[in-house]
Amino acid sequence: NAGVMQNPRHLVRRRGQEARLRCSPMKGHSHVYWYRQLPEEGLKFMVYLQKENIIDESGMPKERFSAEFPKEGPSILRIQQVVRGDSAAYFCASRGQGNTGELFFGEGSRLTVL
Amino acid sequence: GQNIDQPTEMTATEGAIVQINCTYQTSGFNGLFWYQQHAGEAPTFLSYNVLDGLEEKGRFSSFLSRSKGYSYLLLKELQMKDSASYLCAVDSGTYKYIFGTGTRLKVLA
Q1: Which residues does A contribute to its contact with B (CB < 8 Å)?
Q2: What is the DSSP string of A81-94?
Q3: Is B97's Cβ below 8 Å from some Cβ in A?
Q4: Do residues B14 and B80 lie in contact, with contact meaning Cβ atoms separated by under 8 Å?
Q5: Per-residue model confidence (pLDDT) at position A99
Q6: Which residue on chain B is closest to A45 by alpha carbon?
């Protein structure tokens, strides 16, 4: 039973380019979360999605960042016109049905902006 | 606002016991989680408390007091492999899991 799969694991972009990060949740999970982590810091909530719906995007910058979780396929976190400050690890997590429950994390995507 | 506080760093000796504290102030509460994260790796689930009291799971125990907004993670018989960051997270009841900044634990031989 595969866990949460994220790709790419490492991504290098130049300033102004686009970064597209993908996350396939655990089988049977319909709740997806994206978190951002800077070195030696905690996880900062960005967005919470269910299939075809953004439930809470209060942690995501209004500009340049967008997220989706289509009916078919992985969840995608898209960062347009990247800047150096976007360099971070982006973790995706999923959970099963119900109002709460442990989050299962992917290995993260590490974005470096040159 | 939403706030979760943990010590930044702790050091302990192999074989010892260490207690990592977490205090929280959130608009709602639907449970508290502890995660372990080794450097460069994904966080992994350790424990979940929703009612007051102690939950024990092998060498790890977690305690919760909802009235005090306080939890701790207790690690016994420390091993070198326990060197990691320990993240306290609260489900604030709005489906948003809020994480503290994490406590970096260094276990010395």
Answers
A1: 4, 31, 33, 35, 40-45, 48, 55-56, 58-59, 91, 99-100, 102-108
A2: S--GGG-EEEEEEE
A3: yes
A4: yes
A5: 63
A6: B98
What is d(CA A103, CA B3) in angstroms, rounded to the nearest whole number?
A: 20
Report chain A residues whose CB lies below 8 A from the CB of B98. 45
What's B81's DSSP letter? G
Residues A12-68: pLDDT tens digits? 999 999 999 999 999 888 899 999 999 878 899 999 999 889 999 999 999 999 999
> What's the mean per-residue pLDDT of chain B?
94
Taking an 8 Å cut-off on Cβ atoms, the answer to whether A107 and B42 are in contact is yes
Q: How many CB pairs under 8 A join A and B?
A: 54
Do the Cβ atoms of A80 and B26 come closer than 8 Å? no
